[in-house]
Amino acid sequence: MYINLLGYVCLFKRKCKNLLHKCRILLNYSVKKITALSKNMTKSKIPKPAIERLCTLYRFLDMCEEEGTTCISSAQIEKQLHIGSHNVRKDISYLNLSCSGSGGYNIKKLKSQIAAQLGFTQPQNICIVGLGRLGTAILAHERIAESEYNLAAGFDSNINKLETIRTRVPVFPSYEIESVVRQMNITLAIIAVPADAAQSVADKLIGAGIRGIVNFAPVVIKTGKSGVFINNVDILGKLNLLTALLKANSSEIYQ
Amino acid sequence: MYINLLGYVCLFKRKCKNLLHKCRILLNYSVKKITALSKNMTKSKIPKPAIERLCTLYRFLDMCEEEGTTCISSAQIEKQLHIGSHNVRKDISYLNLSCSGSGGYNIKKLKSQIAAQLGFTQPQNICIVGLGRLGTAILAHERIAESEYNLAAGFDSNINKLETIRTRVPVFPSYEIESVVRQMNITLAIIAVPADAAQSVADKLIGAGIRGIVNFAPVVIKTGKSGVFINNVDILGKLNLLTALLKANSSEIYQ
DNA sequence: TATTTGCTGTGAAATATTTCACAAGTCATT
DNA sequence: AATGACTTGTGAAATATTTCACAGCAAATA
User: Fold this and answer.
1) Which of A44-48, A243-247, B82-86, B92-96 has the lowest mean pLDDT?
2) Which chain B residues touch A222 with a CB distance below 8 Å?
3) Which of B15, B101, B105, B113 is found 20 to 30 A from A78 (Cα to Cα)?
């Protein structure tokens, strides 16, 4: 049997280097950990899937409230949202609160508690880049106006188009993105431009200090900057997912 | 110390009933399990998060292919998609294939393998309900035309509007949903109607045998029928999610 | 008042998913 | 051919998430 001995020596050397590197990392990590602990930064982490579910729940509660319902039980939520009642209760328990009354949760209370924990209380300024059909459709979205988000600006690269748009939202040419975003303190953005323009728009937005992007363009937006969150809503991707789930036939709902 | 003894007796009785119920369920379950095993239904399950990532990857590979790239490594994918390279490799390993060449995966091969495993090979007929700004924007989506999905029909309740829409996709009034969906063998649907009409439209679609729905209306669609997959794309929900993630400051990307 | 029902909240157990470490392979360079 | 710098693929370990079971209430009912 032939053994590549020198290959192994090489491997060994590399491992030593890796080890050294890891020692350095570990040292760094320890220091950070100790600092964090000493500052008592024990942020009780909510699992990400739970955060997603809570967002859906929040939207749902909003709907219920409009319809005039005041109370809802975890069992009812299970029926409507296809989230197991165990799961619902657990998710809510992460919030460390209690808003149970007779017949389940008090919707108003629960909603405000979720809002407080997830940070929906402070109104945020948002903007839309790309005022084509999709962009203007979002501009006209009735519920955004009623929400905790303030649609502060719209952008489009076609200056002639800007004048034809009838909306109460102030609109600007795309080259003003950076200055307007900074001036108006806009934190979230919605991208609704064609695929080829999406990445450069995203770069501008991130450069201007945007913290989160919902991207409707059919490309995957990349970001080098950490702390910026991107949510790619690609319709073909969604269709693909449905196809795949149908084939795998796992659970029924995907939010 | 006061003990509610009778309460406990009652609890005990309830537990006995529950136990009996569970025995029945267990019996059923066992029978099913044995049948399944005997039929060798060992469908090697891909975890749902992995399926989601593979869908994103598939879209991304499509993009790369258009740009003319032929090979890509897991490390490069990590940089672009913010999915850890370990994770990428693991996900791909669920597919039980090997398409590695020099310098990483062969894009064309990998793409076709994902398509085969996730069921993207057979073209599917899809339809859009609601031809407002959002609906027509989707109708005009260039990439859908090039994709494995065939946009077979559009529906709107406003009959007068139908005549004004210029598109190659055949359009019908909403009351024909059931018959057209059945006739054309449409399996997936996109809902782009106002919030108040969404649920009734969904019910019609599901009644007609639709298997999956992408819902852009800002409500959570419910389904009693199992085997129907619903993907609610609520823009306010997405914004909420970004806000919550920013507050929690967990990872950076959410697809 | 006695009993029953229905509900939440939550540690602990069970399960699912991600990360890790490394064998094994390919190719370019010395 | 020796070496080094890249890969992937994958069991096993580590971690995260979900599910379960039930105490503990509150309200409804007999």
Assistant:
1) A44-48
2) 79-82
3) B15
Please tell me the distance in Å from A94's CA to the nearest CA on chain B. Answer: 13
Q: Is B43 (CB) below 7 Å from strand C? A: no
Strands B124-129 and B149-156: parallel
Question: For testing the chain B interface, which of A82, A243, A246 should be mutated: the one with the most B CBs within 10 Å?
Answer: A243
Residue that has been written with the tokens 């029909």 in this structure: B153
Q: Per-residue pLDDT for chain A (255 aa), expressed as one digit of tens each?
A: 344 445 545 555 555 555 555 444 445 444 444 444 443 344 458 899 999 999 999 999 998 998 888 999 999 999 888 899 999 999 999 987 766 666 789 999 999 999 998 999 999 999 999 999 999 999 998 889 889 999 999 999 999 999 999 899 999 999 999 999 999 999 999 999 999 999 999 999 999 999 999 999 998 888 776 678 999 999 999 999 999 998 876 434 444
Task: Mark whether A190 and A167 lie in a shared domain.
Answer: yes
CA of A100 to C1' of D27 (A): 13
**Residue B70 maps to which CATH number?**
1.10.10.10
**B134, B229, B240 ranked by CB distance to A245: nearest:** B229
Residue at a domain's end among B93, B118, B143: B118
Each residue's pLDDT tens digit, B157-169: 999 999 999 899 9
With CA of B19 and C1' of each nucleotide, the nearest comes out as: D21
Does residue B109 reach within 7 angstroms of strand D, measured from its CB? Answer: no
Asked whether residue A149 falls in the same domain as residue A177, the answer is: yes
Contacts of A186 in chain B (CB under 8 A): none
Kindly report the nearest CA distance between residue A234 and chain B, in angstroms. 9
Q: Is residue A52 part of a domain?
A: yes
Which one of B120, B146, B236 makes the best mutation probe of the A interface by having the most chain A beta carbons within 10 Å? B236
Nucleotide with C1' nearest the A71 CA: C7
**Taking CB atoms and an 8 Å cutoff, what residues of chain A touch B43?**
248
pLDDT-wise least confident of A244-248, B87-91, B241-245:
A244-248
